[in-house]
Specification:
118 residues; alpha/beta
Length: 118
């Protein structure tokens, strides 16, 4: 089962959808990471072998500069970032990409494109 650390900016119904899809979910807000800096969240995810799911593009920069090939990140770019748009983007991506098999990669998902960076 894939362990996902959900950033605070991800709506609750997206979290519920991920649970139904078989992901083991940990919310940043339910840990001692509440309001932590992004690089601290990235460190926690790396140490605990978790994939970070976020709307925050700053995690792409953290991946490139500090955690390349050690951190697994999914960045969702939905515009506007409503729960509905985020879910639609994830559902579309799930058809093309097995989200259970993301290891040590940066995945940027938008409504029209999936970028996989190793």
């Amino acid at each position: 089962m894939t362990n996902i650390l959900i950033d605070e900016n991800v709506p609750n119904n997206v979290r519920e959808w991920l649970k139904k899809k078989g992901f083991n979910i940990t919310n940043v807000s339910d840990t001692d990471l509440k309001r932590a800096k992004d690089y601290i969240i990235a460190d926690y995810a790396t140490k605990n072998n978790m994939t970070t799911l976020t709307l925050d593009i700053d995690f792409a920069q953290i991946y490139h500069t500090l955690k390349k090939r050690t951190l697994s990140v999914i960045v969702i770019k939905a515009n506007p970032a409503t729960a509905f748009n985020i879910l639609q983007t994830l559902i579309t991506a799930q058809k093309k990409l097995d989200l259970h098999k993301i290891e040590k990669k940066l995945i940027i998902i938008s409504s029209k494109r999936i970028r996989i960076i190793t």
